[in-house]
Amino acid sequence: MLGDFINRCLLLFFGYAYPAFECFKSAEKNKINMEEVIFWCQYWIIVALITVFERFGDFFLSWLPFYGEAKLGFFIWLWYPKTKGTCFMYNNFLKPYVAKHETEIDRKLQEVRARVWDFTIYYWQNCAKLGQSTIFQVLEQLATQSVRFGNATATKQTQKKTGSSVPVAPPPPESPSARRSGSGRWTPRAASRLNRESGAADSPRFQRQLTGEMMDGDNDELQQAKMRLRRSTPIS
């Protein structure tokens, strides 16, 4: 484990950091040496291809003994001044192959670019629609919750003002039978109260009914007085 970590650190330094610094010095010289610039361009082209293929190749080749050490040695061999393996790899393998299939490679790259662009637009539109619908749902839920909260607050304030949590129902209207006096006869006070409450004092039917009941009540009292008088009179 420690050896693999050390190997990765050495690969980052000798394969990327040191060549990048040398390339920087070549590009920033007062008198630019085109051979050095071309050499480092070729080196970075090869390193880029190796980095692409090693993402898949490491899965199948990393189990080999001394695989990391071999990779480190290959990177050093590419830029080392006495070996300059970059020129050998570029001129003998990479350049002939790319020059032969350059048109086909360009066509494949354009197709891949168009597919990636269409794929990106398609999923961007779907994500935008999904996000829009989600935002509308959230806003609708917030509006509903705010309305409920406002109604509950208004109800609580009303209950605090009235001093009762249960609304009081109005008293039921009093029936005509409850307005009678204890003797079962309509009294003038009850009649006038009934007239004021019902607003039907001018109705002829009501006047006839009220007069008939009062006359019946007077006849009852007259009959009772006659009976008392007969009982009190002695028989001669």
UniProtKB/TrEMBL annotation:
The chain crosses the membrane at residues 37-53, 59-80. Residues 153-167, 176-185 have a biased composition (Low complexity). The keyword Repeat does not apply. It comes from Linum tenue. It comes from the Eukaryota. Keywords: Membrane, Transmembrane, Transmembrane helix. Residues 227-236 have a biased composition (Basic residues). This is HVA22-like protein. It is a multi-pass membrane protein. One of its GO terms (cellular component) is membrane. Residues 153-236 are annotated as: Disordered. It is found in: Membrane. Belongs to the DP1 family.
